[in-house]
Amino acid sequence: MIALLILVLLALAAALWWAVRGWAARGLTLAFAALLLFPAPFWSLRYHPPFPAPFPAGAALPVQTLSWPLAGVRHLRLGLAASVGSLSVSPGQTRSVRSRAFARVSAQFYRAGAAASLELRLPRPGLGSAAFRPTPWSVAVDPKVPLDLTVQGGVGQLRLQLVGLDLRDLSVRDGVGVTAIAFPRQGRIRARIRGGVGDLTLRIPAGLAVDLRWQPGMGPLRLPRSWDLRGSRYRSPGWSLAKNRLRLDLTGGLGPVAVQQ
After folding, report:
1. Which alpha helices (H) appear in the chain, and where do they start and end?
2. pLDDT < 50 positions in the chain
3. How many other C-beta atoms can be found within 10 angstroms of the C-beta atom of residue 217?
4. Which of 167, 170, 227, 261 could lock onto 204 through a cystine, CB 3.0 to 4.6 A?
5. What residue spans define the domains of the chain?
6. Is the dihedral of CA 48, 54, 56, 60 positive or negative?
7. Listed residue (155, 212, 170) closest to 78, CA to CA
8. CB 53 within 8 A of CB 130
9. What is d(CA 151, CA 149) in angstroms, rounded to the nearest whole number?
10. pLDDT at residue 15 in the model
11. pLDDT, tens only, 34-75
12. Is residue 73 exposed (0-12), middle (13-18) or buried (19+ Cβ within 10 Å)?
């Protein structure tokens, strides 16, 4: 019903646009159309409230807990697509990946010999959908399995506590909200991070050397003062002799980016 009303309003605005002449009159037509369409999302939320009747105030939401065995796996590709709510990733029990969310997570698990691939995704509700609610989601990963991790942020807090994981490759496309990523102390890691809307904080442990390529966005970049600028790249002290290294491609978004070490 709401979608049909929006289509009618758009058709009315288009008809007025072609009926009037002069840029001043057309400007008034655009303003009139904006005033008509602006309340539409709020009408949708009014008639389809974000917290539906099956889950009244104070009631416990159902929790979905899933687990995938990793016995014998020597390399894991893990992809996560968040939705509305918080997402946290951290080390968990050995020989498994565990997901816990207050929503139904869609999963695709493949295994070929000692290599495994797992794709987890939360549903993305449309505006006015009865399923529209913040969803806390946590994923725990075996700390001993070499890991390639891909994360698509959503709307909400994103926290990647990667300390203790055997991280080899990281790809993050940030969403809307506060994001914090803590890297492991050891390993040779390749990472690509694209900022979104909100604060982005990267925590680099002592002993992990960094080679950073920065592509500016709309927000500022804050780095440790000891890092050197060489061309378009920043390097932390001791890069040339470091055993543990992080090669980082970092793209700014609409918010400040802070690298801490």
Report:
1. 2-19, 23-37, 40-47
2. 1-5, 38, 40-59, 128-131
3. 19
4. 261
5. 2-47, 64-260
6. negative
7. 170
8. no
9. 7
10. 57
11. 555 545 443 343 333 333 333 344 445 678 999 999 999 999
12. buried
